[in-house]
Design a protein that fits this description.
Blueprint (H helix, E strand, L loop, with lengths): L1 H32 L15 E7 L6 H9 L8 E8 L5 H8 L2 E5 L7 H15 L4 E4 L4 E3 L3 H10 L4 E8 L6 H23 L11 E4 H6 L9 H11 L4 E11 L5 H31 L7 H8 L3 H13 L3 H24 L4 H5 L4 H10 L1 H7 L13
Parallel strand pairs: 1-2, 1-4, 2-3, 6-8
Antiparallel strand pairs: 4-7, 5-8, 6-7
Helix pairs in contact: 1-6, 1-10, 1-11, 1-12, 2-3, 6-12, 9-10, 9-15, 11-12
Length: about 400
C-alpha cells in the first residue's frame, strides 16, 4: 500500500501546483473587483472613431446591431460605422447597407475567421489615415447609448486600448443564457474591475473593445487564432501597452440557445485557450523570471487559471484525497470560487434568479466533461474557425 499512498501524494501535490496560480489570481481579482471602478477624467478633446463590425452570415442580426450603434449618443468628432461582410453566402452585406452602414466585403476561402477580417479592416483604415481610434463590435450585439461617447472620452484621456463590460443580451431567454450571463458577469465585469484596481491591463473580451491607430502601428494586429482577442492582448502587454476598463458602458451579445451552437462556441473558446496556454505559458514564465517583465505576470496568471469548470473539477478531486493539506486548501479554493461567482453577480447587476441558476452548475460541469474531445480538437494549432449558430 505504500506505493499507492505515494501515488496519491504525488497526485495531491500535482493538483495543488496546477490550481494554486489560478486560486491566487481569483483571490486578487475578487478583492480588487469589489472596490468601486475608477471614473475617467473629463476632457473636451475630440477623437475621430471608426466602429468595425465583422460579420460572417449575420443577416438575421446585423441590421439590429447597426441601428443600435446609430442610436448611440454622438461623440464630439465625426465617426464611421463599417461592417466587414466576411466570406458571406447570405445577404448580410445588403442588410447592413439598407440599415445605413458602410460595407466592406471580403472573400478569401483560405484565410477565414474574425482575426483576418479585423486585420484587413485595421490595415485599410491605417492607409486612409482619417480615424484616430477604432472600436470592434460583434454583429449580434446591442450597445449602451453612451458607448461611443465614453469610448471617445477614454481615448482622449490617453488610453492605448479599451474594453467595456460585455455580458449577455436578454439572459432571461433560457437557462443556458442566464448561466452564461452569470459566467460573463464574473469574467468580463468582476475580473476586469479587479485587474483595473491593481493597475493591470484588463484584457480583451473580443466584443466592445477598441484601440488607437497609434497603438496599432506600434503593435500590428497579427492575431489569427480562434481566440484572437487573447492573442492580441498578450502582444499589447509585451509591448508595454495597457487596456483600460470602461465600467460605465457595456455591450450585450446574443448567446446560442441551442445545444449545437453552445457546444461549438464553448469548444472554440476553451480549445483556443488551451492552445494559448500551451504556446505562451513557457515564454511568459521565462519573460517574468529571466527578463523581469513583471507586467506579464497578470496575463500569465490568467493563462494559468483553467476555465472555472475545469478548475472546480480538479479542486473537487483534491478535496477527496486523504491528506489534510489537500483538503483544507481545496475547501478554501472552492469557497473562493463560490464567492467569486456571487461577487460577479453582485457587481455585474445580477439578481436572485442568477443566484438560483447556480443550482445547475453540477450539470454544467458534467456537460463540460462530455465536451472535452471537441475542446481538444479546437486546441490544435490549425483548428478552423467555425461560426456559432445562435438558434
Amino acid at each position: 500500500m505504500l506505493w499507492f499512498s505515494l501515488m496519491l501524494a504525488i497526485l495531491a501535490i500535482g493538483l495543488v501546483a496546477i490550481t494554486l496560480p489560478g486560486t491566487l489570481a481569483l483571490l486578487f481579482w475578487t478583492i480588487g473587483g469589489l472596490f468601486p471602478a475608477r471614473r475617467l477624467p473629463i476632457t473636451d478633446k475630440a477623437v475621430p472613431l471608426a466602429v468595425i463590425v465583422p460579420a460572417h452570415n449575420e443577416s438575421a442580426s446585423i441590421a439590429t446591431t447597426v441601428r443600435h450603434l446609430q442610436a448611440c449618443e454622438s461623440p464630439r468628432a465625426p465617426w464611421r460605422l463599417i461592417v466587414i461582410a466576411d466570406n458571406c453566402t447570405d445577404d448580410t452585406a445588403e442588410q447592413a447597407r439598407r440599415a445605413g452602414a458602410e460595407v466592406w466585403e471580403r472573400t478569401d476561402e483560405q484565410l477565414r475567421g474574425k482575426g483576418y477580417a479585423l486585420a484587413m479592416a485595421f490595415t485599410r483604415l491605417a492607409h486612409e489615415a482619417a480615424q484616430q481610434a477604432v472600436l470592434v463590435v460583434d454583429a449580434d450585439t446591442v450597445v449602451d447609448r453612451q458607448f461611443l461617447v465614453i469610448s471617445e472620452q477614454a481615448f482622449a484621456s490617453g488610453a492605448d486600448a479599451v474594453q467595456c463590460r460585455y455580458t449577455v443580451n436578454q439572459p432571461e431567454r433560457s437557462m443556458r443564457s442566464r448561466l452564461m450571463n452569470v459566467a460573463l458577469m464574473a469574467f468580463n465585469v468582476l475580473r476586469m474591475r479587479g485587474r483595473a484596481f491593481w493597475g493591470s491591463s484588463v484584457g480583451i473580451a473580443g466584443n466592445g473593445w477598441g484601440v488607437t491607430m497609434t497603438t496599432l502601428q506600434t503593435v500590428p494586429y497579427t492575431a489569427r487564432s480562434v481566440v484572437e482577442d487573447l492573442e492580441y492582448h498578450l502582444a499589447l502587454v509585451r509591448a508595454g501597452k495597457r487596456v483600460i476598463f470602461l465600467a460605465e458602458t457595456a455591450v450585450y451579445g446574443d448567446m446560442p440557445t441551442g445545444g449545437h451552437g453552445a457546444k461549438t462556441q464553448r469548444a472554440r473558446w476553451e480549445g483556443g485557450r488551451f492552445r494559448m496556454m500551451r504556446e505562451f505559458i513557457p515564454t511568459l514564465i521565462y519573460a517574468v523570471i529571466r527578463d523581469k517583465q513583471h507586467a506579464l505576470l497578470e496575463p500569465l496568471l490568467e493563462l494559468l487559471l483553467l476555465p472555472l469548470a475545469w478548475h472546480t473539477m480538479l479542486l473537487l478531486i483534491l478535496l477527496l484525497l486523504p491528506f489534510s493539506f489537500a483538503f483544507y486548501y481545496a475547501l478554501f479554493a472552492l469557497l473562493l470560487v463560490a464567492f467569486h461567482v456571487l461577487a460577479g453577480i453582485m457587481v455585474g447587476g445580477g439578481n436572485w434568479r442568477d443566484v438560483l441558476i447556480l443550482a445547475l452548475v453540477p450539470f454544467y460541469i458534467l456537460w463540460k466533461l462530455a465536451l472535452l474531445p471537441r475542446v481538444l480538437q479546437t486546441a490544435r494549432k490549425k483548428a478552423a474557425w467555425i461560426r456559432t449558430e445562435r438558434g
